[in-house]
Amino acid sequence: AALQALKRKKRYEKQLNQIDGTLSTIEFQREALENSHTNTEVLKNMGYAAQAMKKAHENMDLNKIDDLMQDITEQQDVAQEISDAISNRAAFGDEFDEDELMAELEELEQEELNRGMRDVRLPSVPSTSLPSHPASTRKRAEDEDEMKQLAAWAS
């Protein structure tokens, strides 16, 4: 009986593998059909779009479009020239030599600087003697001490 059960089990496993293979084939066929349907719809919609674009461009002439764009560009140039002409100051005797103006400005600045220098009060020189070690040497020694302490702490 056990031998018969094992034989049945093997037959059922073989049938199960055949059914699984069949299901896989059917699933593949279904996916291929769905893709085919999708491709057909996309192609049909692309055809509609091409027809719509053709209809939209039917009344357009490339030469007329070029002429229109040139007219627009010319009118924009005219508008810019008008704007430039309006925005420029009219010269009603306001013309001055820039070199003369710069020289006068430099002269005024120098006079102001000279006036400011006259009012400067310098501090008096201290009467005490200077320390024997310059401050920079003292600072350097303090820095070296701090570095040694830091190195000792780190190690």
From TrEMBL:
Subcellular location: Cytoplasm, Cytosol; Late endosome membrane
Major site of localization recorded for this protein: cytoplasm
Region named Disordered: 112-155
Compositional bias (Basic and acidic residues): 112-121
Membrane topology qualifier: Peripheral membrane protein
Tagged with keyword Ion transport: no
Compositionally biased region (Polar residues): 125-135
A GO CC term attached to the entry: late endosome membrane
Keywords: Coiled coil, Cytoplasm, Endosome, Membrane, Protein transport, Transport
Gene3D superfamilies, per database record: 6.10.250.1710, ESAT-6-like
GO biological process, one term: protein transport
Family designation: Belongs to the SNF7 family.
Protein name: Charged multivesicular body protein 4c
Annotated source species: Leptosomus discolor
